Amino acid sequence: MPNVPTLISTALALTAFWGLLALLRGLRHVAAARGKIVRLVDIHLETLARRRLTLVKTDHYGLVDEAPWQKECRYFIDRVVIPQLSARERGAIAFRREALFDELIAAPVARRAQELEASLAMAKDMSPAEFEHWCSTALHAAGWKARATGTSGDQGADVIAEKDGVTIVLQCKLHRSAIGNKAVQEAFAARKHYGASVAAVVSNASFTRSAEALSRTTGVLLCHYSDLSRLDALLASESPAA
Q: Are the CB atoms for 187 and 170 separated by under 8 Å?
């Protein structure tokens, strides 16, 4: 009959073995989860960075409000990231989930947003009229023939641009608060008035849900000013209403 010390030693060894095996499996699942998160962020980095630029605001007192961006980030995590992780991967990262998301999502997006903002070189005290010219210049740099109308009788078009047979009219809105329906309506009317192919509202701010809904039925493109450098790609992915 085995002696008690031997049985205890064997049990401890087995416990240690299974504990080590569970740890290694857990580490493997953490590594797999990290890889998936990194890939998803790489795929959506430009969109995430531009959303961060749109949603993070500094008020008149210099206080930074990140609440809208944090809500957007949580939406990305819940709707895009989590569904791609297996149950074991979700369990493996549960003990440091938020820290992991900060490291793999929030941090790289913040860095990319800073790079974008620096490359755009937009003055913080820019006036609405200057913003219109800034948008026109940005389109020029992207290969468009563009001009700011600069008049009160512009019929809703602050900038008119043309490239490869496509004419686009832009409503340019430099705001602290979300852009509503009126800008979408003006852009839609401008497209009809000028016989343009496309209408868009470009802004430094976000858009209300009502404006987003109206944009879908009118075909008016809603974009952040950082999107002007990739306007061709955005237009290729859109199907504006006639």
A: yes
